[in-house]
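Q: I have two molecules that I believe assemble together. Could you output structure tokens for the complex as a whole instead of separate predictions?
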Amino acid sequence: MAHTTRVLRSEWTKVRSVRSTLWTLASAFAVTVGLSALICVFTESSYADMPVEQKATFDPTFVSFSGMTLGQLAMIAFGVLVVSGEYSTGMIRSSLGAVPQRGTFMACKIIVATLLVLAVGMVTSFTTFLLGQELLGRYGTTLDEPNVLRAVIGGGLYMTLMALFTMGVAFVLRSPLLAFGILMPFFFLISNILGGVEATKDVAQYLPDQAGTMIMSVVEGSMGGGDRPYGPWGGLLIMCGWVIAALVAGYAVLRQRDA
Amino acid sequence: MIELEGLTKRFGTKTAVDRLSFSVRPGVVTGFLGPNGAGKSTTMRMMIGLDSPSGGHVRIDGKRYDQLRDPLNYIGALLEAKSVHGGRTAHNHLLCLAQSNGIPERRVTEVLDTVGLTSVAHKRPKGFSLGMGQRLGIAAALLGDPSILMFDEPVNGLDPEGIHWVRTLMQRLAAEGRTVFVSSHLMSEMAQTAEHLIVIGQGRLMADTSMAGFIADNSRTYVRLRTPEPERARDILRGEGITPVPTADGAMEIENTSAARLGELAARHQLVLHELSPQQASLEEAFMRLTAGSVEYHAHAGGREAERAAGAGPPAGPTAPSPGDATAPPGDTGRGWGEGWKEGR
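A: Yes, here they are, computed for all two components at once.
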């Protein structure tokens, strides 16, 4: 236990002593909050012109999380850099030289990064919600409404799980170029395209981001209509499945391959 | 104490390290010598658990590296490859390593001072020169005040001042009773620092001997003689039962006869001499002969040319033609010599 505490402290020093931590997490916050605010302003001004069916499924909570589509990319960047940074710089050799118990090393790195991301994610989620509702004015909602608190906490969890998934993948891929090259286009484009096309929709709804996003919706059918076979928590659970798979794969690679 | 037993590493079909067994003892600097690609770095990486062996094992003070708790307190390693995050200041780099092994923060300041990096402690290593990077690596190795130190090509790319500093440091560490294991591809470098020598070629152990023993066994001494009357000189020498060996540049080499005796002989026969000098074949040549058959990447197709190119300059070296001489024919100098050496042990 004492050993684990030491490695945790060491990982904390690592994560706080590189600039990329600050700028990725700050961008995750700024982009999510900023873009969501912008969308809330536009939504508020155009609400009156919305078709009736759109008004019926209007979800003020979900609208205030719109910026997360882009903000999550900064979270992904954080996850990739925390892990791949070790490999691209050669730091991994020093790290494993100091902590040859690779499982401990990986666990501590992930715990530290997760706690940090969880804190940033929660702050981001509450800020974007509260600011968004303020901007939506009379169309907005409050934390007291049913399921809203769940959605806002869920937003923070979603960002955390996203970073966790990314870290697992980065342990598998090692190269930051490869990790960015696969994860960024996947979550920015491919997942959305697959989710939007009728033919692939049924499969795409099980992708980590698509399933996880459910947690942030309060009004049923707000996510582009169509009933999903899982609820908000079910969706988050599917995302957890992806995270576990990525982390297990990451551990297997770390354990077996030469550093 | 580092012990290797049958250590083997295969990458696909290529065997990088082939059943290496030796031990590194405390209190002396042990040189780990081999040409580029001989498997030195791979061996060292296996020692600290970065690469897992395909066979055999390494023990550090009797334990596997990953069984060591807080390994930096047992063994400090400077690897050849860069092992630092360029964006993390020197101080923080050492701090995170120290914390993971329960080493107090004050020690970070101490080692930075030891290697002379105090003034750049809060700078990012991204902008460090090669020498400064090397010093930071050495600081990391010293962090836990370990009893075993391992340096992979520590003087590569250093300026003379840096080289001198590293040498002095290694000798000091050994004098303090530590195990110091240092790799190099240059014999001359080893000759100045190491007391014990382990030579590998193509992953195989070629020699495990004391430096003094290696020098005694491998340094050929002879006298170089130059005269405007070579024909007469040869006759005079033959008359005394001495066989001179002509060299490419018109001089001759004589083994087993002292320069004094040759000088007296020349004086007695009133032979004009332009040069009379005792010579010693360099250790670099001895090393090259030992590993010639195992060098992976020759500069040319023929081993001898590569050898000559690399070992150019006087003394003329072992490949000089020597008909009727006891030395091996030049054609198979490398392999034959290496094996002969081993059999002779």
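A: One point stands out. Residues 119 and 156 of chain A are 8 Å apart (CA to CA).
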